[in-house]
Amino acid sequence: MVCLLDYARARRGLKPLGIVYPLNRSSTLKALAIVRCADFSHTPCGKPFAATFDAVGYAGPVSTSYGENIAWGAGAAGSPRVVVSGWLNSPHHRENLFSPGWAEQGIAVLPVPTFLGSRDVEIWVSQFGVRS
């Protein structure tokens, strides 16, 4: 997934994003919440969008900006190639991925046996950020 995202950004003349532990962890927490509450949204379980960023200390005393793309798919529809294709064909997700302001990223994939009535599902969370 990271290679596909970096490749897409490079094709637009953008630098690859550094992988950072806090965003990887925040992405994982968001994926876990999505599954736990069966709530495919940027605010699963009724938590604020910033909750996972705050939980890992990414949104701390320094100036930060962050965003995310989420996706899920069953079987082949959950593969990295299909998920990235979906993001690239969605104006909002595409805009997020190609933001020149991002400097860092974190990725999580959570395979689950069932989700919202589908079997063999992959939950993807891709988070982006910049700290100054």
Please describe what this structure looks like.
By secondary structure, the chain is of the alpha+beta class. The chain has helices at residues 2-11, 21-37, 51-55, 80-88, 91-97; strands spanning 18-19, 64-74, 104-115, 118-131. Strands 1-3-4-2 form a four-stranded mixed beta sheet, with helices on both faces. The longest helix is centred in the first third of the chain and has 17 residues, at 21-37. The model has no long low-confidence stretch (mean pLDDT 96).
Oligomer: single chain
- Mean pLDDT across the residues is 96
Q: Which H/E pattern describes the elements?
A: HEHHEHHEE
Number of strands: 4
Helix/strand/pairing category:
alpha+beta
Any idea what the radius of gyration is?
Answer: 14 Å
Unreliable runs, pLDDT <50, ≥5 residues? Answer: none
Tell me the strand order in the biggest sheet. 1-3-4-2
How much of the sequence lies in strands comes to 25-35%
The number of helical segments is 5
User: End-to-end span in angstroms?
Assistant: 26 Å
Helicity level, as a percent range? 25-40%
The geometry reads as globular
Largest sheet, in brief, is: 4 strands, mixed
SSE layout:
Elements: H1 2-11, E1 18-19, H2 21-37, H3 51-55, E2 64-74, H4 80-88, H5 91-97, E3 104-115, E4 118-131
Care to give the gist of this entry?
The chain is of the alpha+beta class and 132 residues long. It has five helices and four strands.
Properties at a glance:
alpha+beta; 5 helices; globular; 132 residues; 4-stranded mixed beta sheet
